[in-house]
Description:
Largest sheet: 8 strands, antiparallel
Structural class: alpha+beta
Order of helices and strands: HHEEHHEHHHEEHEEEEEEEEEEHEEHE
Strand content: 15-25%
Helix content: 25-40%
Number of helices: 10
Distance between the termini: 110 Å
Shape: globular
Radius of gyration: 31 Å
Amino acid sequence: MSTEPDPPQQNSLFDWIRYAAIACLAVVVIWWALQPPGNKDYGSGEPSDDSNATEQLRSDSVPVRCDGTTMGAVPYCVKVSGWKSSQTPAETEKLLAQTVRAELDLIDSLMSTYRSESDVSRFNRSDSTDWIPVSLETVKVVQIAQDVSELTRGTFDITVGPLVNRWGFGPEEFSTPPTQEEIDELLQSVGYRHLAVQVNPPSLKKDVPRLEIDLSGIAKGYAVDQVAAALRKQGIANYMIEVGGETRTAGEKSPGKPWTIGIEIPTPQWLGEPKIHRKVQLGAQSMATSGDYNNFIDYKGIRFSHIIDPRTGWPVEKSQMGLADVQLRLGSLSVVDSTCVRADALTKGFYVLGVEEGLKLANDNGIAVMFLLREDTPDKRGPGPRFTVKEVASEAFKKNVKILE
């Protein structure tokens, strides 16, 4: 028997692989044990950190909101819900505000009558009857305005601005209303048929040198639609957008709870704050409202609203002059449409048409419109509104708009 020691055993390649795997596993176990609890992922696919979970819940279930003013002093409010964002609520609100502001600022820069370099101001300053280049956005709005003018037989007209201004509802101040002679003169340069529009290249053309346009009766609705488009690009499906009273909704405020919009009683300012007449759910639609109760002047005992009839050059209340005890007058109307820009324009045209003509036009064309008439009463029982409201709605409004009782 040999007395020499056995030779040392040699590790196989398999043994070395096994040792390396054990060492790696040990390192992983030690690293995992040293991690803070909030950073561990247990395979659920969702963050388990309490603060992150709260952030996700808040951005999913609580509407994010931004407010401000645009186009001068026009207020706006935008609310969104269900926006799945990994950002903090403050960061999400900031992104929403930046998205909304970018759209509103662009529209204001192109369509304002107060900005000297806007498309509108440049067109109005020019006395040329050649094509004047403007932005494609401005062309789109003017095209819609012209279509609504045709539909309403000229009761909506973006060239009526000089008359609106002369009646004291524009940038200039006047101590007295215009004379009939002044009105007749201004009417020579008013009329949507004097205006032409083309897309390629985007430009406008006037056939009378003094023709001007004013998009204030339609730009707010267009702004609502553009903000909605910007939100959809961000992946937002649930929103409520309101700019100066023109509104658009989509999706839900919270699961199972649609957005609800109020239609105010047309309460004159001197009688206090308006209350809600109806609550409606628009679904994926828009609503615009026009009325006589916020912007008006007093003349010969009649309160004239800012809505001018382009056919006569007078506010729509002219028909009441000389009439005693006018007890029923159109206070406001609301139009619901797939786009807010069209709804915005239609409200002005229907307001000038009045209830009888407007209701017929709406029913003939399937337009959803609700008229609210104030019925004045000689109520002497004390302070507060002294009128009741009569509601007249088109067939499309009754059919397509969910009214909450």
